[in-house]
Specification:
Number of domains: 1
Distance between the termini: 45 Å
Structural class: alpha/beta
Strand order of the largest sheet: 3-2-1-4-6-7-9
Shape: globular
CATH superfamily: NAD(P)-binding Rossmann-like Domain
Strand content: 15-25%
Number of helices: 10
CATH architecture: 3-Layer(aba) Sandwich
Radius of gyration: 18 Å
Length: 269
């Protein structure tokens, strides 16, 4: 896909991976419709995008009415989106017994329903147009590796990966690609914004500090643009993600050992 003047929708675009992705598509000549739940962040991104911004709006991806309005605004400017990047995501940390159902609802509303909403409201027009397109859903290396002390996040990202693979098969006849991106540790604010429960709260600063040492969000953005061009089903991003991906394919029983190593690295084991 040549990206010049293509319409690209990016959710969770106010910071981190979403922001880097929106800017990367704009630099490639695309017109970007960006949204984020943080009004100040998305307004700042809109200024950075300049004339490449179709618009930059505050939207809660968990709210179906707001996502319907987002899609209507895009379709008022173009027959269909060419690329949809369902990036918005949050995290909860702690033992399962300490995590509240309210936190489960909050996380699943964004991490899973947000992805479903992005596909539900943009894919019909993409299919109707008949010119193909691409969907990028941000899963995680925790979408293939069941890390402990993050059961809501793991559950949501496994769901996004499975959803993406099923959707890929359905959309192939329409020449619409679907890729699940599975980043490892990336230097974003997700750990800073995480909801911690129980004893894990005392490790919040250490976890945030560790994440700040991860790969830059621009690395993920480059892989996303590459995936739009090459259409892989799954794309791990980062050396840690590729290492875990490869190990699990060779030795699926290694999950417990990987979890123990990761816990020690984060200072929670």
């Amino acid at each position: 896909m040549k990206l010049t003047d293509k319409v690209v929708v990016v959710t969770g675009a106010g910071s981190g991976i979403g922001r880097a992705t929106a800017l990367a598509f704009a630099a490639a000549g695309a017109r970007v419709a960006a949204c984020d739940i943080d009004g100040d962040r998305i307004a700042a991104l809109g200024r950075e995008l300049g004339p490449r911004a179709l618009f930059a709006e505050r939207v809660d991806v968990a709210d179906r009415a707001q996502m319907a309005e987002l899609a209507a605004a895009v379709h008022a400017r173009a027959p269909a989106a060419d690329v949809v990047v369902n990036n918005a995501g949050v995290a909860c940390g702690g033992d399962f017994l300490d995590i509240s159902l309210d936190d489960w609802d909050w996380l699943f509303g964004i991490n899973l329903r947000g992805v479903v909403h992005g596909c539900h409201f943009f894919l019909p027009k993409m299919v109707e147009r008949g010119a193909g397109g691409h969907v990028i859903n941000i899963s995680s290396i925790f979408g293939v590796f069941p890390a402990p002390k993050s059961t809501p996040y793991v559950a949501s990202k496994f769901a996004v990966l499975g959803f993406s693979q099923s959707l890929r098969a359905e959309l192939a006849p329409h020449k619409i690609g679907v890729t699940a991106i599975c980043p490892g540790m990336i230097a974003t604010s997700i750990a800073d914004d995480m909801r911690y429960s129980g004893a894990l709260r005392q490790h919040a600063q250490k976890i945030s500090s560790t994440f700040r040492g991860g790969a830059r969000p621009e690395v993920v953005a480059r892989e996303i643009l590459g995936a739009v061009r090459t259409n892989p089903a799954v794309r791990p991003v980062g050396r840690d993600a590729w290492a875990i991906w490869a190990m699990l394919r060779v030795a699926p029983s290694a999950t417990t050992r990987i979890g123990a190593v990761m816990a020690r690295y984060l200072g929670v084991g």
